[in-house]
Amino acid sequence: MLASGAASDLYVDAKLTTQDPDGALLVGRVGWALLKRTAAARAITVEAVGGLTMGADPISLSIGISSRLDDSESTLQTFSVRKSAKAYGRTKLIEGNFSAGNTVVVIDDVVTTGGSTLQAIEAIEKEGGKIAFVIALVDREEGGRGKIEERGYEVQPIFTRADLLGCSTE
Questions:
Q1: Which band of pLDDT confidence, cut at 50, 70 and 90, is reported for residue 12?
Q2: Structurally, how many domains does the chain consist of?
Q3: Which of 71, 85, 108, 136 has a CA-to-CA distance to 11 between 20 and 30 Å?
Q4: Has residue 133 been placed in a domain?
């Protein structure tokens, strides 16, 4: 059973890779290259990356670190979107380095139904962020990408189900 309540015949525990130093390094490098290429093709400047905690957290940070290593002038920031606002302190829904008006790339570890990605998008837009596009580590190809794109947000997967298994369900 997945976070959405849906069932899938493909379970991906991305944290085994994204929280491993070698895996995080590779994910960061590939994610940063994909972000740069997509942003350049659209002639936009991306200021920050982040998504729904906790799946997006290590990916966002890895991409941010890779951007800094690639370009010492890089100002790509990272942030996390909480599932609900903190009930104490500053009661923030978005933690980290995010400001209203930022152009951001939304990160997700695994897209299945698209619900987590759309939840992050809604929170970011509510706080004044502008969504450039979405990067997903894995698109399970179970309809979520289509739902996100129907709402007007391009999804760039690093891997798809077909990449991992050689077959697609869509």
A1: confident
A2: 1
A3: 85
A4: yes
d(Cα 94, Cα 49) in Å, to the nearest integer?
Answer: 12
Query: Tokens 């525990």 identify what position?
Result: 13
Rounded to whole angstroms, what are the CA distances from 64 to 41, 89, 127, 159?
20, 27, 21, 19
Q: What are residue 148's phi and psi, to 5 degrees?
A: -65, -45
Could you give the strand order of the β-sheet that contains 103-111, starting from the edge strand earlier in sequence? 94-96, 77-81, 48-52, 103-111, 130-139, 155-160
Is 9 among the domain residues? Answer: no
Q: Dihedral, CA atoms, 97, 60, 106, 51, nearest 10 degrees?
A: -80
Rounded to 5 degrees, what are φ and ψ at 10? Answer: -125, 110
CA distance 46 to 40: 10
Nearest Cα residue to 117 out of 130, 129, 135? 135
pTM of the model: 0.90
